[in-house]
């Protein structure tokens, strides 16, 4: 299962635009890159858990979750007013610049702030990522210690997968 996740995630994580997310703080000591990795991994695991009852596109879940917060400003201090209502469109525009997206991936990015975005998710994958994003964000704020980094938390190493994968594999 880890192999499936990393084979899908590695090409995006090697992309310099996605790597730039590591330069931005997101929630309480966590970088935006760590946040999107956490959302992607958790969404992937839950999606696999429910895959016997609901058919879900694991690739779209991983890619959409990794790109759902693809914006480049400190949202607490700068950027557009009403960030929560607008950044999903910024992330979608940025994601379209680096890869071709499926309709599910676009919906994941565009609806990840639902119910703040009035129109609900169209796909179960979009609903799942929206709920996991809310869970991960809430969890980041209710812990009393610095959140562990993604690699520490899951004891996984992207290195071996990223070495095998070329950025052209996106």
What would a concise description of this structure say?
The protein has a single domain, classed as Hypothetical protein af1432 (Orthogonal Bundle), CATH 1.10.3210.
Largest sheet: 2 strands, antiparallel
Total DSSP helices: 9
Order of helices and strands: HHEEHHHHHHH
Strand order of the largest sheet: 1-2
The count of DSSP E runs of length 2 or more, i.e. the number of strands, is: 2
- Strand percentage lies at under 5%
CATH class: Mainly Alpha
Give the total of domains.
1
Give a written overview of the molecule.
The chain has 9 helices and 2 strands, in the order H-H-E-E-H-H-H-H-H-H-H. The chain is an all-alpha fold. The chain has a single domain (2-155), classed as Hypothetical protein af1432, CATH 1.10.3210. It has a two-stranded antiparallel ribbon with strand order 1-2. The protein is globular, with a radius of gyration of 15 Å. The two termini are 19 Å apart. The relative contact order is 0.19. The model has no long low-confidence stretch (mean pLDDT 81).
């Amino acid at each position: 299962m880890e192999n499936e996740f990393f084979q899908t995630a590695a090409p995006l994580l090697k992309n310099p635009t996605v790597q730039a997310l590591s330069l931005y703080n997101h929630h309480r000591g966590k970088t935006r890159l760590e946040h999107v990795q956490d959302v992607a991994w958790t969404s992937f695991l839950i999606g696999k858990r429910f895959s016997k009852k609901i058919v879900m596109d694991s690739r779209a879940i991983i890619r959409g979750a990794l790109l759902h917060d693809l914006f480049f400003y400190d949202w607490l201090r700068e950027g557009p007013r009403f960030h929560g209502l607008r950044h999903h469109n910024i992330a979608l525009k940025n994601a379209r610049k680096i890869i071709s997206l499926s309709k599910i991936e676009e919906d994941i990015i565009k609806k990840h702030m639902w119910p703040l975005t009035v129109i609900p998710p169209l796909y179960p994958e979009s609903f799942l990522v929206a709920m996991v994003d809310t869970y991960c964000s809430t969890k980041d704020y209710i812990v009393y210690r610095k959140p562990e980094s993604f690699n520490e938390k899951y004891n996984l190493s992207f290195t071996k997968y990223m070495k095998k994968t070329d950025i052209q594999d996106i």
